[in-house]
From TrEMBL:
Stated family: Belongs to the calycin superfamily. Fatty-acid binding protein (FABP) family.
Top-level taxon in the UniProt lineage: Eukaryota
Gene Ontology MF terms in the entry: lipid binding
Subunit structure: Monomer.
The protein's name: RET5 protein
UniProt cross-references to PANTHER family, sorted A to Z: FATTY ACID BINDING PROTEIN
Organism expressing this protein natively: Pterocles burchelli
Amino acid sequence: MPPNLTGYYRFVSQENMDNYLRALDINVVLRKLVCLLKPDKEIIHTGDHMVIRTITTLRDYVMDFDVGVQFEEDLGPVDGQKCQTTVSWEGDQLVCEQLGKKRNRGWRHWLEGDQLYLRMTAEDEVCVQVFQKVK
């Protein structure tokens, strides 16, 4: 049985965000701004339904989905793209595949103790963020 990811998580660290954003064709000014942000994550996990809210001082991004069901994701606030997105479990990791213009686009979340990890991929770039559970 997969873990329940419900909780509020504060940003701890990130690696390789600039190169990840460059792979998504984000302009240099926006990349620099995003690299300065320290987003929080709020996850509401009820059965197969999940809401993942990424909270920043610039803008929030909300994913509301059912695990295992493909949907059209509007990534306009991120990079102006739309993807066919499917989120599923691979063991204890929540894995997202985003099919669109960019190859190898997606992410995975997993817990290690009270820390939430997020590994994002696009093309050949990988960015890892770490969050600490606070409630």
